[in-house]
Structures are given as C-alpha cells and as structure tokens.
Write a structure and sequence with these properties.
Structural class: mainly beta
Number of strands: 6
Distance between the termini: 21 Å
Helix content: under 10%
Radius of gyration: 16 Å
Order of helices and strands: EEEEEEH
C-alpha cells in the first residue's frame, strides 16, 4: 500500500492513512509447484475503498498492463528473469526530510 503523500511544495513526503494505491503479485505459489504470473499489477483505491485496475501502470518494454519480470535485461545488468514475491513502496530517505 502506498501511504506517502507530498507535502506543500512537492519536495518532501509524509505518511498518511489514506491509501490510494495497492500493488499485487501472483508469483509466489511454492506449495503448488506452479510458476505463477511473474508480473506486478497496481490497483487504485477510491475513497470508499473500492479497487480498480490502474491501466496506466504498464511495462515499459512491452506496453502491457502490469510490469513483467520475465525479461533478460534490468537497470543493474543482464541477469535474466526475476520472481516478484515481496512488494514494497519505497520513498527515498532524502524525500522524507
């Protein structure tokens, strides 16, 4: 869940209790022996708590909705496919000050 909002001026962030985005992954299905779907998708949360797919959250390589982890090249090098099994929204420490 994304719980960070920019403060006035937009240079810093603060934590809020008004969640507006949630990310999901369907990869980690170890007990079944199946590989799952190595994509991360994002949903928007409206004020009533209803979820809708964020159609703007797209893979920059394929253009498909959600971000696929079955690829050979990453920003840190050509390391092959990855398996998303833990999800975290992170805000750089410098933005929190």
């Amino acid at each position: 869940m994304d719980t960070f909002r920019p403060v006035a001026g937009g240079k810093h962030f603060r934590q809020t209790d008004q969640v507006s985005r949630v990310v999901t992954s369907n990869y980690f299905v170890a007990p079944t022996g199946l590989d799952g779907d190595a994509r991360i998708c994002e949903a928007l949360v409206d004020p009533a708590g209803r979820l809708t797919e964020d159609r703007a959250f797209r893979d920059e390589h394929t253009g498909r909705r959600c971000v696929g982890f079955y690829r050979t090249s990453w920003p840190h090098g050509d390391t092959g496919k990855a398996n998303p099994h833990g999800l975290l929204f992170a805000v750089a420490d410098a933005h929190l000050r």
